[in-house]
Design goal:
The complex is a heterodimer. Chain A is mainly alpha-helical. Chain A has helices spanning 2-38, 41-71, 79-106, 115-141, 143-172, 179-213. Helices cover 87% and strands 0% of the residues of chain A. By secondary structure, chain B is mostly helical. The radius of gyration of chain B is 24 Å and the shape is globular. Chain B folds into 3 domains: 2-339, no CATH class; 351-407; 412-488, no CATH class. Classes of the chains: A mainly alpha, B mainly alpha.
């Protein structure tokens, strides 16, 4: 019996660690965008490097959790849902990593006037990710709280849409910029906004999984 | 030959193990929460324990319904029940061993002319209706409790999973124990009056009665049923019939087990009576119907949507069709076994309406005016006795039952040396033994005469007024009396 509970505890802490990776990833992404816009290239590259490592560690943990769930036939009723949740959460982490990498590769030229909006967009999108992680944690422990967190994610997602739209409108109304420059800036707003969209997708799955788990 | 006759009971046991173990472990195994090997081991061990330790209560009620007194009769009755179960299962009709065996016993009563104890029959039939309802009530209550507790406890999903697994095994063990205790009567109950086993006293003066040995054998047949066939049934039950979360499965099995336990436990009966509460009748009930009741209870607790109420009608129809089919089967089979295979399906019992019997009947307010014409006649056949009684007097079934009990001739010769040798002082009180010794040399032709003689000598043999509080005491006295009959009976 103690053996059974020991394995359970181990897996529980692995899931927690995986979710920690996602939250830390969101924080690194936010910092990274900020440093990029401030022109602190070394700090930015450092954050990108950290995020990259975090993403690899997250992948490793996720695979380990998934195989344990199946090998030990744990939570047979919910493991399909849990697996789906972990995989879609991984997509969020990947999107953040790739977006930050694109900053490093493509070095987009963001006009200074739009810096506050980009920072705000990154903050709101990563807030959606943080709320998403809280919702997932609640799914494991306290079903009643899931709904509140999901509502926050939906709010942040809507906010990110609005900010991104605002950025795009401002960019395309500038007469002194090349179209290619405008498109490049829109592209980055679009990708940052996507992070919140991915978080919303996770929450859609989570809402259904939660209903299934209710007694 | 004895072993051959027991085969039909063992077959019934096997089919019970194959089908009904799934009511205890089906959801756990079907949902992969518990491995089949673990489930089969736990179920087998606890079915055996339940049958041997607590099987007597429900068997006693079934025995009162009809005392099938010849081995070939018991064989045929059990076979008829088993055939009914198999046949109705094939037709996909809802069926329960408990209901089949009751029908088969009534078939024996009809065939032999033995009166049916309507009081016991009423008790049995009412529990069939009550048991699924009670299971539903328990599952509603448990569901609410679990919901509140789990809502507040904030247990991690994985921990809850681990607790549920352990819970399913523990509750499954309790369920298997209750199943053994409640349903062994279906399998071996009809063999009790014709049991070939003698009591054994194990070291440490533990008494292993003949009935318990019979029950052990029946329980082993159930265990074989579990190991050989129940895996398939468990997977079907777990996956197709109803989809429940593991926690709901736990609630369902717990509710079902409590119901089976309530209708089987003599200790609970003792406890209720000693606290001035009305006792619960000890009757074999259907575990399948208790499970369905519990699942419907969950459905109701969840708001009552998506419940297939049609299944309730099916269950209710089973209460009628199963016993009727089994009674018919039993009647026809008894005819064949008696007349074609020339086996004795009923031991001849002699009935006589002696003046003493007539006087006793008058005391019981049974109309005897016309029965006096039968005074002095002896009947060696239940049917003939019944016909003669009915020709002379308008009698209800329960009056007939009483007359049969009072008029039955027996022969007891009391001998103080036999009393000294055979009456176990761990079992009988010194006063009881002393009272029996005082009757040395006397002969009795009716059980009730011996009872009355003993009651006159000593209060230790007297029944107390028929109240709930005295139920257990009177039950114990009656049990001692039955043991006494066995010790002092003179073979005629």
């Amino acid at each position: 019996m103690a053996f059974l509970f020991k394995k359970t505890k181990e897996l529980e802490s692995q899931i927690d660690e995986y979710l920690d990776c996602v939250v830390r990833g969101a924080l690194l992404f936010r910092q990274g965008v900020k440093y990029y816009l401030e022109g602190r290239t070394d700090d930015f590259e450092g954050r990108l490097h950290d995020l990259d490592n975090l993403e690899s560690r997250g992948d490793q943990l996720r695979r380990d959790i998934e195989s344990k769930l199946y090998e030990q036939t744990l939570i047979p009723e919910s493991r399909g849902d849990v697996l789906g949740l972990l995989e879609s959460t991984d997509t969020v982490l990947n999107t953040m990593n790739e977006t930050l990498l694109q900053f490093s590769v493509e070095i987009p030229e963001i006009i200074e006037e739009l810096h506050p909006l980009y920072i705000e967009l990154a903050e709101v999108s990563t807030s959606a990710v943080e709320a998403m992680v809280l919702a997932i944690r609640s799914y494991f422990r306290e079903l009643a709280a899931v709904r509140d967190h999901i509502n926050k994610v939906l709010f942040y997602e809507k906010e990110s849409d609005k900010i991104a739209e605002k950025i795009k409108r401002l960019v395309f109304r500038k007469d002194d910029l090349r179209l290619s420059h405008k498109i490049h800036m829109r592209y980055f707003a679009y990708h940052i906004e996507n992070i919140a969209d991915d978080a919303e997708d996770v929450c859609d799955r989570l809402a259904i999984a939660t209903i299934k788990r209710y007694l | 030959m004895i072993w051959f006759f027991l085969l039909s009971g063992l077959f019934l046991g096997w089919s019970l193990g194959a089908n009904d173990a799934a009511n205890v472990f089906g959801t756990a195994v079907g949902s992969k929460m518990v491995r089949f090997k673990v489930a089969a081991l736990v179920a087998s061990i606890f079915v055996i324990l339940g049958a041997v330790i607590s099987g007597a209560g429900a068997a006693h009620t079934l025995g009162k319904l009809g005392a099938v007194n010849a081995l070939a009769g018991s064989f045929t009755v059990a076979l008829a029940a088993a055939a009914t179960v198999t046949w109705m299962t094939k037709l996909k009709l809802p069926v329960s061993t408990s209901q089949a065996i009751v029908g088969a016993i009534i078939g024996w009563n009809l065939f032999t002319g033995s009166p049916t104890d309507l009081n016991s029959l009423g008790k049995i039939v009412s529990t069939w209706v009550v048991s699924p309802v009670l299971a539903a009530v328990f599952s509603i209550i448990l569901f609410r409790i679990f919901k509140v507790v789990l809502g507040r406890a904030r247990i991690h999903m994985l921990e809850l999973d681990a607790y549920t697994r352990v819970g399913l095994i523990v509750v499954g063990a309790f369920g298997a124990y209750s199943l053994g205790a409640n349903n062994i009567a279906n399998v071996m109950g009809v063999f009790v009056p014709a049991s070939p086993f003698k009591d054994i006293v194990l070291p440490g003066s533990i008494r292993f009665s003949g009935t318990q040995q019979l029950f052990l054998l029946g329980a082993l047949a159930i265990a074989v049923g579990i190991y050989t066939y129940s895996e398939r049934v468990m997977r079907t039950v777990g996956n197709e019939v109803y989809k429940l979360t593991p926690v709901m499965a736990l609630i369902v099995v717990l509710s079902e087990s409590i119901v089976l336990f309530l209708f089987a436990s003599e200790s609970l009966e003792h406890w209720l009576v000693s606290h001035g509460l009305p006792p619960i009748p000890l009757v074999p009930v259907s575990s399948s119907q208790a499970v369905i009741g519990a699942v419907i209870g969950i459905g109701i607790a969840k708001g009552g949507k998506g419940i297939n109420y049609g299944i309730l009608g099916k269950i209710a129809s089973g209460w009628i069709t199963t016993p009727i089919a089994a009674a018919l089967f039993s009647f026809v089979a008894l005819f064949f076994v008696q007349n074609v295979f020339e086996q004795q399906v009923v031991r001849p019992v002699t009935y006589e309406l002696s003046p003493a019997v007539i006087h006793k009947l008058e005391e019981k307010h049974i109309p005897v005016e016309h029965l006096k014409e039968l005074e002095g006649q002896r009947f060696h056949n239940m049917s003939k006795f019944r016909e003669a009684l009915k020709e002379h007097e308008q009698l209800s079934e329960s009056q007939l039952y009483q007359i049969f009990n009072i008029a039955q001739r027996d022969s007891f010769r009391i001998d103080s040396t036999i009393a000294e040798r055979e009456m176990d002082p761990n079992h009988f009180t010194p006063e009881q033994i002393e009272a029996v010794k005082q009757l040395h040399g006397r002969v009795f032709v009716h059980k009730w005469q011996l009872d009355e003689a003993l009651a006159q000598i000593s209060p230790a043999w007297r029944l107390k007024p028929d109240k709930n509080v005295n139920k257990i005491y009177n039950k114990a006295i009656r049990k001692r009396r039955r043991e006494l009959y066995l010790i002092f009976r003179v073979s005629q």
